[in-house]
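Hi R.,

Here's the input for the magnesium ion complex you asked about:
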Amino acid sequence: MSKNLIMGTAGHVDHGKTALIRALTGIDCDTHKEEKARGITINLGFAHLELSDDVSVGIVDVPGHKDFIKTMVAGVYGIDFVLLVVAADSGIMPQTREHFNIMRVLGIHHGIVALTKSDLADEEMREMAKLEIMEFLDHTSLADAPIVEVSAVTMQGIDELKAEMLKLARQVGQKPVADIFRMYIDRIFNVKGHGIVVTGSVLGGRVVVGQELLLLPANRDKLRIKSIQRHGKAVKETSAGDRAAINVAGLKYDDFERGQLLIDRQLDETTMVDAQVEFFEPQMQPKTWWQVLFHTGTFTTYARMHLLTCEQSDTAMLAVVQLHFEKPAVLINKDKFIIRNSSNDLTLGGGTILDVKPLHHRRRTEALKQRMTELALAAVNEQNKLQHIFIESEKEAKPLLLQEAAHRTSVSVDEIKQLMSEISGILILITAGGEDYLVTATYQKQLAEGVIEILKTWHQENTFFETGLEMTELLGKLGLRSAAEKELLALLLGTMTDAGTLKNVGKTFALKSHRTAMDKKQQEALEWLRDTLIYNKLNRLTIKELEQKAHERSIKKSTLAQLVQFMQMRHELYTDGEDVLDAASVNASRLLLLRALAQAPRGLNEKEFRELTDAPRKTIQLLIDIFVREGIITKETFFLHITETGKSLLNGG
Ligand SMILES: Nc1nc2c(ncn2[C@@H]2O[C@H](COP(=O)(O)OP(=O)(O)OP(=O)(O)O)[C@@H](O)[C@H]2O)c(=O)[nH]1
Ligand SMILES: [Mg+2]
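And here is the predicted structure with magnesium ion in place:
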């Protein structure tokens, strides 16, 4: 299988990076007029080299001048290894250091050193330069990197350098192709007859011609890949480690912007992240709020940086920060970035995104610091996958979509499931609407406590009811909305019922410990209400009238409402929400009516019904409504008839 990698140059201005790439590949990266005139690189240059039949390298040549650090960061983002260029006649210089630091925090740990212009230095100078380089790289990931003496003028060392590149390329692991496809756009062309072509370094994943892509942030329209080129040749697909030129259809030239992301799925945009930052100057005085420039890939934005924790040593200053972006970014946890001061003339440092969906940290509490440190460790350390998954689930404070957990932790869905089977209890998996969700035990516990709390209050306020609350009422009171939350509550209520904390009363869930009770005052009020209704017989009372009467006896409106509901549940009264009728009288008139109807083939009219029951005119209407709703009679023009249901009721059904 062939291997595709990207190499980037790094090093101080004028040290011979571009000349060396030309010597290696025959390609001149300084193509712009201004570059030719000034003799320096201003824009990123691109070249490629087939190192063997199965190893090819895309090359990004970056500018060394300190004014173009932003371009340099964009260029080296996503490369697999670095060609660190140091001129033999001048040695380590400021941008040698700065570039090296940038590469280091961007997580580029492989590389080769080219001692350029060796034709201009005698042996003693070359040895001095090498010693200086070795000292500089001591204790870094490039400590064992080969240092190759080269000259772009005499071509000395060029073959040896290619051999070292091949050796390294075989060692370097390829970026995962199974990942999300992402490519930060570095150039945009409008090619006559073809349309838009965008180029970039493929950070992960794989796409094929014909596939659909998205342009993020902001643009939600789908793009279709018309064709792909790598290293100037048409190909059917492109994957992690490629420098790619992608011809897309679906959007206009003006829709594209350097710094946007071509991506194969919708990811949420964010304007706030938690991150770990290493500052290049350990003496740097941290401020609480810092205005900075944030760079990742070709994307840049102003950001306010809020220091959460900070550890200073002689050699480094490490901090956990929260960044608030001026414009939305599309990031994945563990992405690397660089920050510069707001006037863009100093690289402050760089680091790793810990959390693309953090909570807003207003205060720097000890608990927060602790959590951030844990998260930093979990996110940065591969061994702590499970902890990272757990922290993400816990932070969510509701069921977390498994897919989303995978995305945030960069651990695949399958692996999460696998990891979960190793532990038990602290995380559970639920399925709702065909999607899997993660829920922490802590959250379940909170939810259960919430249910108990709500039911306690309910029972306290409704002591004479045996019933509790229905699931939908609980959902509402708990503020749960999503299908996953509904599913979770259903599961939880089941478990709590099985465990004997809850009991089912009709359709409701009540606390097992709940006993109905009425105090003396309430009992007296109930007696009074019963008597009042019986006394009024079929004279209906409005709720308003009842409230007035209750008030005279110092019975609270809320107590009356509960009593009405209580008696209704016990079939002791009938109400349509406005009027109240004594149930015994209603039952008696029901029986009278059914008996009479059973004997009257033509039915009875309202007047006959009234004479039969001796009820006031306005109650007759309500009674008819009740009986029609019960399905025991029908009303056709002026006559009431008994139904089959009515007949069977009469016959003792
Ligand atoms: N004698 C000699 N001159 C060299 C060598 N390599 C580069 N040069 C010269 O050094 C100057 C700078 O070379 P570049 O390749 O443009 O340097 P660079 O590192 O790309 O510079 P920037 O991109 O601006 O940072 C040019 O005039 C080159 O001709 C070399 O190996 N020997
Ligand atoms: Mg150059």
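One thing worth noting: The pocket of magnesium ion (ligand 2) is lined by residues 17-18, 41, 61, 63 (CB under 6 Å).

Cheers,
M.
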